[in-house]
């Protein structure tokens, strides 16, 4: 089972997609299997992190930008320096993740959530979720 989700983003933001993923897994009826989430974008990424303190999302984006700052000396400047930095960030963090489905639910820790990270934006984005029994 595959579903396409749409989101509109702003620059350098973090979007919770946990509820959409959990609902789709339950809707699929799969009790034991795999859930794969993927994004077809080169300036965005996926991550799993704690949802307890929203300031943690700001820390996450701040640290990613500290490690990979937007600068004008990237060898590739596809559209803009921000776009080039987004490509590096996306490559390092990843555009897909696979989760275990057990007893009809995605296995996540009690304080874990699934997040879409925007490194460019604003953009109309999408992510895909696939659930396979197995």
How would you describe this structure to a colleague?
- The structure is a single chain.
- The protein is α+β, with helices and mostly antiparallel strands and 134 residues long.
- The chain has helices at 18-28, 55-67, 81-93; strands spanning 2-9, 14-16, 32-38, 44-50, 96-102, 105-106, 112-118, 123-133.
- A five-stranded antiparallel β-sheet has the order 1-8-3-5-6, with helices on one face. Strands 2-7-4 form a three-stranded antiparallel β-sheet.
- Strand 5 and strand 6 form a beta hairpin.
- The radius of gyration is 16 Å and the shape is elongated.
- The model has no long low-confidence stretch (mean pLDDT 91).
What keywords describe this structure?
single chain; alpha+beta; 3 helices; 39% strand; five-stranded antiparallel sheet; three-stranded antiparallel sheet; 134 residues; 28% helix
């Amino acid at each position: 089972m595959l579903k396409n989700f749409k989101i509109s983003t702003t620059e350098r933001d973090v979007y919770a997609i946990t509820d959409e993923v959990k609902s789709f897994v339950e809707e699929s009826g799969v009790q034991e299997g795999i859930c794969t989430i993927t994004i077809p974008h080169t300036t965005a990424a996926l991550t799993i992190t704690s949802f307890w303190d929203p300031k943690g999302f700001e820390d996450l984006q701040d640290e990613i930008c500290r490690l990979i700052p937007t600068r004008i000396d990237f060898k590739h400047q596809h559209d803009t320096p921000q776009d080039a930095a987004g490509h590096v960030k996306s490559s390092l963090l990843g555009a897909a993740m696979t989760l275990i489905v057990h007893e009809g639910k995605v296995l996540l820790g009690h304080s874990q959530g699934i997040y879409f990270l925007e490194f460019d934006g604003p953009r109309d984005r999408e992510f895909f979720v696939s659930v396979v029994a197995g």
